[in-house]
Specification:
The structure holds 2 protein chains of 2 kinds. Chain A is mainly β. Chain A has a single domain, classed as Immunoglobulin-like, CATH 2.60.40. Helix content of chain A is about 0%, strand content about 55%. Chain A contains no helices and 8 strands. Chain A has strands at about 20-30, 30-35, 40, 50-55, 60-65, 65-75, 80-85, 90-95. In chain A, the strands form 2 sheets. In chain A, strands 1, 2, 5 and 8 form a 4-stranded mixed β-sheet that branches. A 4-stranded antiparallel β-sheet of chain A has the order 4-3-6-7, with no helix packed on it. By secondary structure, chain B is α/β, with parallel strands linked by helices. Chain B folds into 2 domains: about 5-120, Rhodanese-like domain (Oxidized Rhodanese, domain 1, 3-Layer(aba) Sandwich); about 150-285, Oxidized Rhodanese, domain 1. Chain B has helices at about 5, 10-15, 60-70, 85-100, 110-120, 150-155, 165-170, 210-220, 240-250, 260-265, and strands at about 5-10, 20-25, 45, 80-85, 105-110, 160, 195, 230, 255. In chain B, the strands form 2 sheets. A 5-stranded parallel β-sheet of chain B has the order 1-5-4-2-3. In chain B, strands 7-6-8-9 form a 4-stranded parallel β-sheet, with helices on one face. Classes of the chains: A mainly beta, B alpha/beta. Chain A: This is DUF1416 domain-containing protein.
Chain lengths: ~100, ~280
């Protein structure tokens, strides 16, 4: 999971992947990207931590400390969620399918 | 104050888009969201460039607020309906700001942009032309705004409610998890503060929880309603959301928002800081 992803939203200048853990991913529906979805980062107790709106290409990004997280997406075409484990500094990718 | 005075539903909003003396105003964390589509007829306020003084770290002054509202075509007798993204957090901040300068007829659209979009309601890219007004503001109502000395003196005596996420509260993060972590300051929280993340007051669709649910939430976390309360976060916007829940929805009388919040407190020399999960249950994640 730590390997470079095939595609991500560009990271902000100054992001240090040797110190920070960055979680990036895409919201998809039947393989197509879903833009404008509300993407929520929930901690392992299910508590809300942050929310972003996915880009036109379905991308989202969080700065999450190591741990187990749930990424939950709400969209007009449905909702979905997935779990991701962030092991340490670096880039972590996942995908949320909504239906 | 009660829920009926402070909130409007998306259904009400949709039926009152053209109501007289009613102005819809969008305020977003993402200040470009408006351009991509907004509630028809709504004007935009930019919290960063229009509500903050461009030089000093403070709000625009009374004259600046008057000029701003006049230029947006908002009159003293207009009812302002505020809404925005991310569960209304910057709209709640603008709500508190309008109250600070004495605009009483202001309401939040429950659920904000998120519920509006998820409901599939209409968005528009046309920017309305409103004619200039002569808006007159009042002096700041500091009964709802806390400053740093008052906050330091409140340690152990008033309710201090830190509404940031548990990781920010404990000192592990310095900003919410969707923002870069670049701040040069100390992590942690004000000693004796309870950690009740602002988001606990909202449902998944961005609407506020019911009064009963809100009351239970703050009671469970140890808020003593016989004492005055000061809410804070990182820059004062998420704590506006909690200020709204406590002061406007639950009708608690002495509730202030500390807009200096952690960016100020965590940079002060010599003040006490506590790290770790603190006293309330929610920090123990």
């Amino acid at each position: 999971m730590c390997s470079a992803p095939e595609q991500t939203a560009e990271l902000p200048a100054g992001t240090d992947l040797t110190k920070e853990s960055v979680l990036v991913g895409k919201v998809t529906n039947g393989g197509s990207p879903v833009g404008g979805a509300f993407v929520r980062l929930l901690d392992r107790t299910g508590e809300f931590t942050a929310e972003v709106v996915s880009s036109a290409s379905g991308d989202y990004r969080f700065f999450a400390r190591p741990g187990t997280w749930t990424v939950r997406a709400l969209s007009r075409s449905g909702n979905g969620q997935t779990e991701v484990s962030v092991g340490g500094p670096g880039l972590f990718t996942n995908e949320v399918q909504v239906a | 104050m009660s829920r009926q005075d402070a909130l409007v539903s998306a259904d009400w909003a949709e039926q009152n888009l053209d109501a007289p003396n009613t102005v819809f105003v969008e305020v977003d964390e993402d200040t470009t969201a408006y351009e991509g589509g907004h509630i028809p007829g709504a004007v935009k306020l930019d919290w960063k460039t229009e509500l903050q003084d461009p030089v000093r770290r403070d709000f625009v002054d009374k004259a600046g607020f008057e000029e701003l509202l006049s230029s947006k075509g908002i009159s003293n007798d207009d009812t302002v309906i505020l809404y925005g993204g991310n569960n209304n957090w910057f709209a709640a901040y603008a709500y508190w700001y309008f109250k600070l300068y004495g605009h009483q007829a202001v309401k939040l659209l429950d659920g904000g942009r998120k519920k509006w979009e998820l409901d599939g309601r209409k968005l528009d890219t046309e920017v309305p032309q409103r004619s200039q007004t002569q808006y007159t503001a009042k002096e700041q109502d500091t009964s709802i705004r806390a400053f740093r000395d008052e906050v330091v003196n409140a340690i152990g005596t008033k309710n201090l409610v830190d509404v940031r996420s548990p990781d920010e509260f404990s000192g592990k993060l310095l900003a919410p998890a969707h923002l870069p972590q670049e701040q040069a300051q100390r992590g942690g929280h004000i000693p004796s503060a309870l950690n009740v993340p602002w988001s606990k007051a909202a449902n998944e669709d961005g609407t506020f929880k019911s009064d009963d649910e809100l009351r239970a939430l703050y009671e469970e976390q140890g808020l003593d309603s016989s004492r005055p309360t000061i809410a804070y976060c990182r820059i004062g916007e998420r704590s506006s959301h909690t200020w709204f829940a406590l002061h406007e929805l639950l009708g608690e009388t002495d509730v202030k928002n500390y807009d200096g919040s952690w960016t100020e407190y965590g940079s002060l020399i010599g003040v006490p800081i506590e790290t770790g999960p603190g006293q309330s249950g929610s920090g123990k994640s």
